[in-house]
Amino acid sequence: MAEETNNGMKNNYTPVLQLQGSKLRGARVTQLKNHFVIKYKEEPEFFVRVPGRVNLIGEHVDYCGYSVLPMAIQYDIMLAVKPVSVPKLQLTNTDSSHSDFQCDVNSLSIEVKKGVSPPWHSYFLCGLKGVLEVLPQDSVGMLVAVTGNVPLSAGLSSSSALVSAAALAAAHANMLKMTKLEIASLSASSERYIGTQGGGMDQAIAFLGTKGCAKHIQFNPLLSEDVKLPDGAVFVIAHSLAVLNKAKTSDFNCRVAECHLAAQIMAKKRGLSWEKVSSLADLQSAVSASLVEMVDLVKELLHEEPYSKEEICGELEVSEGFLDQLSLSSNTTHISHFKLHQRALHVYQEANRVRAFQEVCQNETVSSLALMKLGELMRESHESLKNLYECSHPNLDKLVYLGEGRALGSRLTGAGWGGCIVALTTKDTVSDYINTLKEKFYKGNPAAVGKDLDSLVFATEPNTGAEIYKLEQ
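The chain above was modelled as a monomer; its predicted structure follows.
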């Protein structure tokens, strides 16, 4: 398996890496291996590690066709795997709250119940199903043990990391040759089996992450470029203690639908074949305008008051049934009102912030000035996510507020409605910033009782992407 780089060269993708690194990682792998042996009475053949991620800028724009700027973090999902000839999947988790699971790989099904969080194994099945659909032969079975330290429902991509790890394990077990870009795209489409209509950011950074660099990731086609962050930049992740499972509610898919509908109505008003416009980026391409000009177009063509479903049908001259089939997902057809102006405005402005963020990193020679500019872009992003996209949470807003004067900028990261913020600090201020949050947000907070504060607020740096390896003998 090889990665195709932008210059056409190929890098070895699945080397057998010796287990190295911190004692913590060694202890986790030993625990995972022991759990596997106790459960299956056999030794694992290989291990998979897929990191979580934090998105520095570019929220809710990937599924609209726009680029993002995430980095892989040190927290990850790890699998111990042994391929077996019997076409059966057996799953176990080191977390005792997650029940064991097994099924025939040739007849697996992914059950999605409205308003109910999917069981943990469903995310693994998504990645496996994606690989099964492209395999040229019947699949082998697998014995798998899972462990993970990516905080759940925190906006750090724990679910996508599990989907991606499952896809990588299944591909390797079946000797399926794929590039990093191919398996990232497959993992992104596979997660939609769970009902989440996301973009491809989480899976792309999971496979393309580079130690020491953030990644500028573009879509259609999937491309990535290293972005060196300014000297002295330190990013801190802080958990809001509020969580949301994207697959449990319609909040996330509603935003996807609103962006889709906004693009279609604006396309119709500009006399375009609106049925062929599937994203706000498609619309920009069709009208050949800059992002700044697209902001003006939103203000010109979309009113600020929410659009009723009936009004949208009238604008597009279609029946409700046709709209449901073409533009909505199964858990958004019941929604009666949509805020199209606000969502489109956020997307175009946020896409422009990604461009500006990358330009500062590439062109600004004075680190202190660069850090100030990046902090301002992050602050603008949070305000937009809070007011235009309405996906923040009071806990997220409080964390952002508490960081004022101590962080250069902070914003929610991930889907929102809970999860984490990411803050930009410096080597000189990071300790004071973290201690301030511990004192003013976490200590005395009932939701933090019994939890390790260092796992709730911590500094992070860009880490490597997915790996396959064996234990050092």
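Residues 188 and 394 are 30 Å apart (CA to CA).
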